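Attaching the record inline, Q. Sequence:
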Amino acid sequence: MRGENSMVSPIFTAAWRPAGLIYLGVCLAALGVGIVPQAIYPAEQDVVAAPRPTLQTLAVAQSLAILLLHPLATLARSQRGAAGRYWLEIIVESAAWLIVTAPFYTAAAWLADATAGDVARTVLYVLSLWPLSWSAGAILRSRPGGRTATILLLLIVASMPAAWYVTREFLRPISAEWLWQLGPPTFAWQAAASRTGAILPRPLWALIVWPATAAVLAALSVLPGPRQKA
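Structure, as predicted:
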């Protein structure tokens, strides 16, 4: 019996960690920002009659937490010697994060006048970002030599809205639409728009590009490392 408990205990431990408290704080802050749209919309834009963008701000906050907070928390745990059963634990933890976000989704959808289809579409896109977080965390945990490149990749992915803005404002002959759709925060904003009617995020390539990237990183994380000289 003790042997079975020793196997199950890390799984339950993974369902709730200090990073979860930070995640809840991020979701709460995102909901608060969405309630006050004047804080995010340009001053000259009329937002009085517009639905509150609470579902959109929640989706953006989740995308950033998944892509940055979770992998860095994984790195911190590995440096403290908390090895555990990595893949099983992070899947359980991800499920726990999704479950505790349900009340935020309920409030955000009500405030944004969003439908069940809008919520389903938003959740689907947010879920598509988790494999990238898992794979990046695996590299950060098991390959010290690849940590800098992996963190840089995550920062680039998370900061794509800045690239979209620069292209849109200063490189007008170049279309910035693909950057908007490729960037997880900006596309999360688009996917969480209220009453759009579609269940799947459009375009579909933006839904699969990051899971495909995650598959590449996962393969790299399990490749044999360089042999050390005797």
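The chain has a mean pLDDT of 82. DSSP finds eleven helices and no strands in the chain.

More tomorrow.
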